Amino acid sequence: MSTEALRRHPHRDTHVGVDLSAHWTWLAIGFALAFAVPFVLTDLLDINRDLFYGLYAASVLALFGSWAHATGYDLRAAIARRWIWAAGLGVICGAGLGVMVVRTEATTTRPDGIAIIGAVLWRGVVYGATDGLFLSAFPILVVFAAFAGTRLRARRGGTVAVGTAALLASLAMTAVYHAGYSDFRSGKIRKPLAGDVVWSIPTLATLNPIGAPIAHIGLHVSAVLHSYQTDTFLPPHS
Q: Which of 214, 173, 211, 209 is nearest to 192 (CA)?
């Protein structure tokens, strides 16, 4: 799509004239990072949990920004695209995920005062937004960008097919990421995969990167407040 066309139609897909293989290369880099970060930092090095969240967030932001810069993906236009719907769906899905936490996890003890406020902001908001951006927004937007301007996207059935591929990419990213943690290399991995279908809805429906992070924040904040000692959410659990 030309620069002039983007200016006239700012809410259309923001893919520019880049070889389609570039997006697939970045997706492959994302998969490698998804496994390497938890595996190296938690399994091999066993670093402090909150330090891990900071390094993880920095890695994800670097990946997302590098992909957008290298491929010419217009993040401003993407964030402006149907943002009210993206935010609204994010809140709704986040509330649903919060209910899931309360119904499936036992209530545990938690710190009080400044400690719990810090945990909500760091483990709930920062880590939750990072997970939503990396596990859903990144793979979904990359897949749609790879097919932007193709004949497949010109047909409704083709758009559904691309959306299905994008959701599968998100599920795969979630599976690879959680496999980086030793305790998720088991049937336990089914839980985050089920959650991925829910927290992916806002970004998948709007192609706005803010939707999935908002939904994931709802999940993590609920886990911090209701099940602080959870062995399902807020990994690593060592």
A: 173
pLDDT tens across 193-209, in order? 999 999 999 999 999 99
How many angstroms separate the Cα of 75 from the Cα of each of 110, 133, 146, 208? 38, 13, 15, 9
Predicted structure pTM score: 0.88
Average pLDDT, the chain: 90
Residue 174's nearest CA partner among 203, 230, 214, 131 is 131
H and E: helices and strands count for the chain: 13, 0
Q: How far is CA 52 from CA 30, 167, 214, in A?
A: 18, 27, 21
- Can you say whether residue 2 is alpha, beta or left, with left for phi > 0 and alpha for psi between -120 and 50 degrees? beta
Q: How far apart are the two ends of the chain, measured CA to CA in Å? A: 48
- Note the pLDDT tens digit of each residue in 92-128: 999 999 999 999 888 999 999 999 999 999 999 999 9
